[in-house]
Amino acid sequence: MFEDLIQRTKGMDSPTSLPERRWLWIYASLAISDDAEAKCVVECGTLNGISTLFLADGLKEGLKNSSETGYKVITIDNYSNPDKAIDTNSPQQNRELFHRFGYDHLVELVEHDDVAYLETLPDRSIKVAFVDSFHDEGHVSKVLNAIEPKMANNSILTCHDYFFRHSGVVYAVNDWLERVSPGYIGGIGQHETLWWAVIRRKDRTK
Question: What is the mean pLDDT of residues 173-193?
Fold first, then answer.
């Protein structure tokens, strides 16, 4: 449960991040559907693994009353973040974290460039995507372009740090919205600094 995970991660995370963690947990809990091809919750940018824990816990909650199998959180990071001020775990530290919290069966950690790895995933296989890797406009644009055909119908795409301090994220998201067909987006909004969109698959890019 969300409240239990808050207690277990106390001291590991900033209290100001809790509202956004809650929304990630909710998004992941809604990932379960009867779409046999869409089994992935994808995170671009693992960092210290805390967001991954909330995505995994939300997915676990969604699976409680479901007979569906095969769901997983895929978290992608090449562990070369140019921002040295950000405290980033090593891949081994993150794997140990996921094991300690009991989510290693739900989480697949991929050490790879996120754009390149996204391109290998089957189309329409992602039910929830959380974009939070490099924040420069060019990279975010590449991630959004790569992730677009991978999103399932009625899926949720969300980007972190959609606010003025990270203008690259704002510009990339806004530019991408101008290029996709209106029917592709079923709704958009923002929770704290989390931008989100509901994806429809009747239309693709113009």
Answer: 90
Name the packing angle between helices 91-100 and 50-63 (round to 10°): 40
Per the listing, tokens 């809650």 go with 22
**What confidence score (pLDDT) does residue 81 get?**
66
pLDDT bucket at 206, cuts 50 / 70 / 90 = very low
In a domain, 205, yes or no: no
DSSP label at residue 205: B
β-bridge pairing 185-191 and 151-159: unpaired
* Full residue range of the structural domain in which residue 115 is found: 2-199
Q: Is the dihedral of CA 27, 205, 71, 142 positive or negative?
A: negative
Total Cβ atoms within 10 A of residue 151: 26
**What is the C-alpha radius of gyration for the chain, rounded to an integer number of angstroms?**
16
Task: For residue 143, give the CATH number of its domain.
Answer: 3.40.50.150
User: Do residues 79 and 91 lie in contact, with contact meaning Cβ atoms separated by under 8 Å?
Assistant: yes
Q: How confident is the model at residue 85 (pLDDT cuts 50, 70, 90)?
A: very low
